[in-house]
Amino acid sequence: MRSRTLIGTLALMLAGLANAAPAQPFPGQEPLQLVVPFAAGGAVDTMARAFARGLSTQLGQQAIVLNKDGAGGTIGFWQVARAKPDGHVLAFGPSTPVTAGHLLSGGPKYDQFVPVCQTHENIMAVIVRENSPARSIQQLLALAKEQPGKISYGHAGQGTVPHLSMESFAGGVGLSFNAIAYRGDGPMVNDLMGGQLDAGVSSIAAAAKNNPRLRVLALFAGQRQPGWPDVPVMSEVGRTPLAPGLNGLWAPKGTSAEAIAVLEKACDAIVQSDEFRQTADALSQRPVFLSSKQYLQRVANDYTVLEKTIHTLNLK
C-alpha cells in the first residue's frame, strides 16, 4: 500500500514539474527569418549573414536572411512590426529606420519593437571615385561652396545615418549638396563608380581598401580609426559627428520575455565568436554587444538627438 502511495505521489510531483517547465521559445523546426531592411551586398547584409550562421549554430535551427529594402529601411521594419511576435521573424540592422525614419516619413517607431541586442557599430565615410577632382575633404567642400546645391552625393535612404551625418555636417558649415537616396550602399557605390554621382556617404565597408576605384576622403568619427590611420575624421574639420550606425537585432513588440532572453544570450555568444569578429574586421565594423535593456536606452537617447537634428536642419 505504501509503495502504491509513494508511486502515486511521485507521479503527481513529476506531472507538476512538467506543467511548471517553461515552454520552448522556438518550438519545432520552423526557420528563423532575419529581415535586412537594405539591399543585398552592403555591409548590413554581410554582417546579417554572418549573424544568421551564428544564430543557426546557437539555436540549432535554420536562420535565413531576407532583404526587404526601400524607404530608408522602413519597409523591412514594417514587415517585422506586423509579424507574429513568436521570435521567428526578426529585423537585423541599424536603429535609424525606427528613429529618424519615424520622424521623417512616419515609419515605425522603436517602441513598436523589442530591441534584442546591439551587435556592432558602423562608421560612415565620405567617398569619391579615384579620378575625382576632390583629392581631400577640404577640396570637396570647396567644390560645394563654388556650386551650391549642385555637387551630388548618394546615400542609403532618407533618414539613414549616412544621410543625416552628411546633412548635419553640411548644415553646420553652411553648405548644401544634392542628396540622392538609394536602397543601400551597393547600388549607390555602383553609380558612384559609374560616374552618376560626385561623391557618396556610406558605411566604411563600402569604401573597401581593396577597391582601387574609390578613395576615402573622411570618416564621421571623433578620432582616427584602426586600419584607416591616414584618413581624417570630421572632428578634425571642426564638426562633432552624429552617432555611428547602431546595428542590432529587433523583435516585434509582444514577443515573450523567454524568447527575448534566449535570443539575447545567443546574440552575446555570436558577437564574441571568431567568425562574426573576423567578418566585422574585414568590413571595418566595430563589434559591440549591448543587452536588450542597454540597447533600448541607447536608441532612446539617439532618438532625442536625431529629433533635434532633424528639426534644426528642417529636413521634414
How would you characterize the overall build of this protein?
Keywords: Signal. Pfam families: TctC. Residues 1-20 form the signal peptide. This is Tripartite-type tricarboxylate transporter, receptor component TctC. This protein is α/β, with parallel strands linked by helices. It has two domains: 32-121 and 244-313, D-Maltodextrin-Binding Protein, domain 2 (3-Layer(aba) Sandwich), CATH 3.40.190.150; 124-237, 3-Layer(aba) Sandwich (D-Maltodextrin-Binding Protein, domain 2), CATH 3.40.190. It has ten helices and eleven strands. It has helices spanning 2-20, 43-59, 74-81, 100-105, 137-146, 161-172, 185-193, 257-272, 274-282, 292-313, and strands spanning 32-36, 63-67, 89-94, 113-122, 124-129, 152-155, 178-181, 199-203, 214-219, 245-252, 286-290. The radius of gyration is 23 Å and the shape is globular. Mean pLDDT is 89; it is low at 1-25.
How would you briefly describe this protein structure?
With 316 residues, this protein is of the alpha/beta class. 41% of the residues lie in helices and 20% in strands.
List the helices and strands and how they pair.
Elements: H1 2-20, E1 32-36, H2 43-59, E2 63-67, H3 74-81, E3 89-94, H4 100-105, E4 113-122, E5 124-129, H5 137-146, E6 152-155, H6 161-172, E7 178-181, H7 185-193, E8 199-203, E9 214-219, E10 245-252, H8 257-272, H9 274-282, E11 286-290, H10 292-313
Parallel strand pairs: 1-2, 1-3, 6-7, 6-8
Antiparallel strand pairs: 3-10, 4-10, 4-11, 5-8, 5-9
